Amino acid sequence: MKYNITVIPGDGIGPEVTEQAKKVLKAVGNVFDHTFLFKETLMGACAIDQTGNPLPEETIELCKTSDAILFGAIGDPKYDNDPTAKVRPEQGLLRLRKELGLFCNVRPVKAYDTLIHNSPLKKERIEGTDIDIYRELTGGIYFGIKELSDDGKHAFDGCSYTVEEIERMAHLAFQSAQKRRKKLTLVDKANVLETSRLWRKTVTAMASDYPDVEVDFLFVDNAAMQLILNPKQFDVILTENLFGDILSDEASVIGGSIGLLASASVGKENALFEPIHGSFPQAKGKDIANPLASILSAAMLLKHLGLLQEAQVVEAAVEKSLELGITTQDINPENAFSTSKVGDFIADYIYNQEDSNINFQNVHMGQSTII
Fold it and tell me: Is 82 annotated as a binding-site member?
């Protein structure tokens, strides 16, 4: 099978981690007899620098005609530190989500046994945590009407949702819960916000269509606390755009490193896969960034294409790298491997799953078994 993959390396460490994900997909292709055709394009600060536009039209068209999109990261300090900038890298990603109809963001959060000691939370609280966070991505306050008074002393951000927007999200979250532990938690602020009351009313009405799924409700402030106190209680979390953005970043501390969190942004026709760690400009070009989130995003991409066995092999390779300590400095500062060496090991493991000891030795010696 041939698959057309649009690759958007983006800014900061994006190109470095995305290169490792491509390396892993190439290994998968060779082992399972698939062909992944990669086409790179621009978005973000790099696109502004080269074209003046954070999302060039050719990028949109390339994404629309691909089977999936692999994205690195977006953002640059020269824009982060300039609140007066009219054109910003993030505008490119927001517009791409809207153009492609990527309304659903999925962020898996898992506590790996070998990394529990890295988490600031107690082992007994987080051991066994396995959550899927479903965040609505193209509505809410991020896309609402925005106003600033002429004198600059009054600002307004509008938040709105429709039943249709809520239902299409909730169906995906319910279906995920059915395949997992059959529990869905809606996070809202229904005691204060009218949009939250619409979310709760709509999800409650839909629950009868999924009688095998237990549904409960939490206000967002309580949910933020419960994620720290007892994250194991959650299976699938469903929430709106702003709350999902905050809660999924909070949940990143559970696993011990934000460098492990992958994500998928899906719509009816298109899907984009990216790590959530951001552009991390301080590490740009140093070969020290953690590529595992990008590689796990590639595994989610494979699942989207229906290549479930291939995705399981990639996930097993990531688990093996963690088990053997072949990780970057954010996880193992005393015996860290470079970004590219971690990618080499995982690709090697896909080629030689029965002989991880050889893979381990090869990486230590600076060699590779990849032919």
Answer: no
To the question of whether residue 135 is assigned a binding role by annotation, the answer is yes
User: pLDDT for 163-193, tens place per residue?
Assistant: 999 999 999 999 999 999 999 999 999 999 9
User: How many CB atoms are located within 10 Å of the residue 159 CB?
Assistant: 18
Catalytic hit among 249, 284, 303, 351: 249
> What SS3 class is residue 37?
strand
Please give the domain boundaries of the chain with CATH numbers for all domains: 1-108+260-370 (3.40.718.10), 116-131+166-256 (3.40.50)
Which residue in 110, 189, 320, 341 is the catalytic one?
Answer: 189
**pLDDT tens-digit profile of 192-238?**
999 999 999 999 999 999 999 999 999 999 999 999 999 999 999 99
Is position 97 annotated in a ligand binding site? yes
Three-state SS string across 55-82, please? CCHHHHHHHHCCCEEEEEECCCHHHHCC
Our answer to whether residue 245 is catalytic in this structure is: yes
Consult the annotation and say whether 88 binds a ligand: no
Per-residue model confidence as pLDDT tens digits over 13-45: 999 999 999 999 999 999 999 999 999 999 999
